[in-house]
Amino acid sequence: MSKTIETTYRNGCIRLPDGVHLAEDTRVTVILPDNALQEAPADSAYSIPDLASDIGPSDLARNFEHYSYGQSKQS
């Protein structure tokens, strides 16, 4: 027998109303109203490359010893 209940989603949990008890591992179906769907906020970790900016000379990696220790530049 199926039963329809109405409840609230709050702080990451769907709380069952008083008097509704389910056995552990009971599978349930949740039907969301159209106005409840929200896009997840973008993960800021994926935008780190966008935050990078060019610093230093364009040949810094190739001539690190020159810029750090004064050695001769490589061509």
Give a quick precis of the structure.
The chain is built from two helices and two strands; from the N terminus they run ββαα. By secondary structure, the chain is mostly loops. It is rod-shaped and about 80 Å long.
Topology readout:
Elements: E1 8-10, E2 13-15, H1 48-51, H2 64-69
Antiparallel strand pairs: 1-2
Structure in words:
- The protein is low in regular secondary structure and 75 residues long.
- It has one domain.
- Helix content is 13%, strand content 8%.
- The chain is built from two helices and two strands, in the order E-E-H-H.
- It has helices at 48-51, 64-69; strands spanning 8-10, 13-15.
- Strands 1-2 form a two-stranded antiparallel ribbon.
- It is rod-shaped, with a radius of gyration of 28 Å.
- The termini are far apart.
Question: Which keywords apply here?
Answer:
single chain, 75 residues, little secondary structure, two-stranded antiparallel ribbon, 2 helices, 8% strand
Structural class: little secondary structure
- For the residues shown, what is the average pLDDT? 84
| Helix and strand sequence | EEHH
Q: How far do the termini sit from each other?
A: 79 Å
Number of helices: 2
Rg, nearest Å: 28 Å
Strand content: 5-15%
- Domain count: 1
Amount of helix: 10-25%
Query: How many β-strands, per DSSP?
Result: 2
- pLDDT under 50 segments (min length 5)? none
Overall geometry comes to: rod-shaped
Largest sheet: 2 strands, antiparallel
Oligomer: single chain
